[in-house]
Description:
alpha+beta
Amino acid sequence: MPMLDVERRIFDEHLEEWLRSHAGQVVLIKDSDVVGFFDDETAALGEGARRFGLTSFLVCRVALLC
Length: 66
């Protein structure tokens, strides 16, 4: 499976729900785990780097277009 396909699928599956509860926040997803929601990309990227190092993870603003 290409890189970040699982994370993108999780984002797409939950987007409608998250638009109601986390609109404008930034979500951090690793594999099929939603790590958390953050106020900005810098905080989400920092947490992703701290937890996962140099492996891939998805950081995306909860909006209609990621």
